[in-house]
Structures are given as structure tokens and as C-alpha cells.
Design brief:
Helices cover 46% and strands 21% of the residues. The protein is built from eight helices and eight strands, in the order ααββββββαββααααα. 24% of the residues are buried.
Amino acid sequence: MKDNREPVRKLFAILCSYKIQPEALHFYLLEKVRARFFAAKEVLYDHQRVVRDAVFVYSGFLLIYGFDETGDRQLLGIQGSGRILLSKSFTRQTSSDLELVALAGTYLLLLSHSDVLQIFRRFDGTETVARIIMADYAEAEQLRLLLLKERAEKVILSFYREYPEFLKGGLLLDIDIASYLLIGAQTLRNVRMKLIRQGRL
């Protein structure tokens, strides 16, 4: 997709849903955003690197991985279409504890740290909107963690109803889904098969 007008229009509409923005910001975004399409799964930002861009997921999925003391990887977040990611590494311009990975078929818009700062300077209220977006993400994550206290069946059913794309297989590994849901991979497979047999998935 070489024409970014529709992805930028969608991003601008989301920003306006928080607070109406001037059309000049729309034109600024058209001029400054960079687009990347991922034909295959690919690391966008490695663990320990500084995240240089704010990220808007136009389509597909951006995964957020963390690492424990032994270096084992765990899926911590899934950002789908319409999500704006302003990570701590990006806002502070420090090395990240996380790894950002785009799945195959993902289309992202990227905006540099300097361009975001320019937006804050030129367009009143945009910095407040950025804080609200980060707060929304933090609250959604707390609600997700609360759900994980439920029985495995409810957790798995909720996950696939939110992300039906991952039922097809191949897009996201069971070991990643299991780590995201804080359950064993075998439990995931057993319960998923049960839900499919019952016609609930």
C-alpha cells in the first residue's frame, strides 16, 4: 500500500475521538509519517534498543515481548488494528526492556520522536491526548490481568473471541498464546479443542 491517505485518515480520526484536532495536524501527519508493511513476522525493535518511533497499527498485529532473568521470552501485549503505542522507551528515549514484533500482514505507521515533539509544540492539547492514550493502555492491561484470575476455559474463550484470527493457526504460536494467558501450552490446546467440539469457538 503506497498511498497512506486512508491509514493517516484513520489515525487522525482516532486522535479526534479523544479531542477534535485541527486539519493542519492531519496534513502534518500525511507529510511526516512513514509506513511499513511486513510480509513475514519481523522484529521492529529489539530488546535493549531505544524505541525511536510512535507506532500506529493500521492493520495486523504488533506483539510486545518481555524477558525474565534467565532470558526466557514472554508475550506481554498484543496491539491490534487501531492501537497507538507510545512506549516508555519512546517517551523517555531510553533503552527498552521489551521487544516489539510485527506479525505477517501487519501495516504500521511510524512517527519519529522529534516529529511527535514538534506536534506537541505546534498543536495545543496533543500532549494531553498522548497521556490519555498511554493511560487507556495501562488500564486495559490491568483489566486483562484481572481476567487471567478466572478459570482457564473462560480465559481462553475470551482470548479467541477477541482475537479470532489466531484460531486459524500459524499466525501466532501456542507457546506465545499460553505465555500471554499465563497457562500451560498443553492446557491451552486441550481446552481449545473442547471449546471447538462444543461449538463455542
